[in-house]
Amino acid sequence: MTVTETAAPDTGLRISTEVKVQSAADREVREPDIVIKDVNLSYGDNHVLHDISMDIEDRRATALIGPSGCGKSTLLRCLNRMNDLIDNVKITGSIMVKGLDVNAASTDVIEVRRRVGMVFQKSNPFPKSIYENVIYGLRIAGINDKATLDEACERSLRGAALWEEVKDRLQESGLGLSGGQMQRVCIARAIAVEPEVLLMDEPCSALDPIATLKIEELIYSLKEKYTIVIVTHNLQQAARVSDRTAFFWLGRLVEYAPTPDMFTKPKEKLTEDYITGRFG
Amino acid sequence: MERHHFEDELKTLKNRLLEMGALVEDRVHRAVHSLIDRKAEEAEAIIAGDREVNELHIEIDDRCLKLLATQTPLAVDLRLITSAIKINSDLERIGDQAVNVAENVVKMLPQPTLKPLIDIPRMAEIAEKMTRDALDSFVKRDPELARDVLRRDDEVDQLKDQVFRELLTYMMADPGTIQRALALILISRNLERIADHATNIAEDVIFLVEAKDVRHHHLGEEKAQ
User: Fold this and answer.
1) Beta strands A89-97 and A61-65: pairing type?
2) DSSP A193-218
3) Cβ contact, residue pair A6, B70, below 8 Å
4) pLDDT tens digits for B115-156?
5) Does ipTM top 0.85?
6) Which residues contact B115 (CB under 8 A, 6 or more apart)?
7) Closest-CA residue of chain B to A14
């Protein structure tokens, strides 16, 4: 880009008279981190996910939206084998996370859940100190060296934008914090084991608006390091934090687009009806 | 509570508007000087088109739409973005008027100078400064500067009428002057339109800062809102 500058008379504003125009959506497309192909899921006779295929970009935030019961949380839970905890679940199709087949018989489910961390709607800090909460995953993996754990604790709390608030009370109970702080402890706990993907299932539903905005600001920095998939009922939140949005309806993926496009010019009428609140 | 991402987007939007303003001011300036210096090539260059201004025009509207959709702006943020859309439009029209001036210059340059130019360069100077000050008032969020811009519009209108009356006498005295006189009258109208667009920008700035809609009021009778 060549820029010729002249000073505009009187204001001394330096102006470039040759400008490279950037479109607002000007950014590189990255390799998919997660490849979901032809996934179908049933709980017993209840077929809840139909032929889901989508690629989730590396180190971006992807939002899953749709009305209650549309399958978005179910799909999220497929990504870290959390559906294993439910009886009678049958899954077909393939889910690859950075080349690892999540559902293969040979895959270590613990390893999946380390690499694909999760934060839930209701934050669930353990009845332990803040410190023990954050480094829990490392301890049960057998790491007991204090220096390593201390470093991981600070790194993770900084990564969760919580360090300054709790650094002088790490030995206090994790249960004694505000809702927003507890949620950030849970995020710190998830990132302490250095995952590649962070799943968030309605992470702000139980939080007040200010705590919500803090978590949303945090997501902007988290997505520099982690691939984030977030399920949310809050369309404005999806619009604010995500790079791509996937709309689900009755277990099907209806539309999947860059977020600015999804919220300014969705292609499907069903999507538009949902986003504009025009369902009967 | 800070929304860093949103703040960055707003800053980029403002910078884009300023770039557009600078480009457009430059074109007006060059169009007027193509007349004063009698340089047809200068005028032709402006007529040849301005890809950068057009692309910025589209980009700014696109940014504003996406900001409205993705950030749910409220209060001053909402007023900022709706003002940006309007200012974008007024700047683009100013750019179009610069082209119109250049086209009229091209029509009259083949013939000798009709008369020394006094009022038209004066109009141009005022209109250019109004545009610059209107944009400045936007950057500095300065409603007093914006009101000052509004006050200067009357002088431009008076000069336009003066130009018309004077050139009318030329045309009545000698039909051979009609082509040049009409071109000058049209140029004076283009400049008066540029000043009007600058006042639109100033009105948008007052709305942005004070949430007061001062359009269609005379300054003396601004109603309390």
Assistant:
1) unpaired
2) T--SEEEEESTTTTS-HHHHHHHHHH
3) no
4) 999 999 999 999 999 999 999 999 999 999 999 999 999 999
5) no
6) B170
7) B22
